[in-house]
Amino acid sequence: xxxxxxxxxxxxxxxxxxxxxxxxHPIQIDEFPGRVRVAFNGHLIANTANAVRxxxxxxxxxxxxxxxxxxWRLFTPSDHASxxxxxxEASYFHLDVDGKRARDAVWSYExxxxxxxxxxxxxxxxxxRVDRIEAD
Length: 136
Prior knowledge:
The chain is mainly β. The protein has one domain (27-135): Domain of unknown function (DUF427) (Metal Binding Protein, Guanine Nucleotide Exchange Factor, Chain A, Beta Complex), CATH 2.170.150. The protein is 0% helix and 45% strand. The chain has no helices and 10 strands. It has strands spanning 27-31, 36-40, 43-48, 52-56, 62-64, 75-84, 88-97, 100-109, 123-125, 132-135. The strands form 3 sheets. A 4-stranded antiparallel sheet has the order 6-7-8-9, with no helix packed on it. A 3-stranded antiparallel sheet has the order 1-4-5, with no helix packed on it. A 3-stranded antiparallel sheet has the order 3-2-10, with no helix packed on it. The radius of gyration is 15 Å and the shape is globular. It starts with 26 loop residues before the first strand and ends with a strand. Residues 36-128 form the DUF427 domain. This is DUF427 domain-containing protein. Pfam families: NTP_transf_9. InterPro entries: DUF427, DUF427_sf. Residues 1-28 are annotated as: Disordered.
């Protein structure tokens, strides 16, 4: 697999603010009972019956997908990173399919904060950077 580069999980959270979910900023993670599919540029890039759904505060739910249920040949690591005080440091990936690129369309928390450890090593997709995310 050409692009199986998966973030190394080096601790990038040291010295950064860490907050716990609370009444004002709740985070709930549960196993999604259905199937989640993600498509980009006419290709199915992720397909799983093992997703977890993260509901954070008033944001739309986010589906996190196990890496082994993604077509890693289509992922290219990005230099972009971000920090969420509730979840930790996120690594990003571009999607490259048949000459079309979706920049930083995918993110993953390799070493999430303990309160959200369930999403560690899973990936999530920006809905506006892929063709569709189906959860049924």
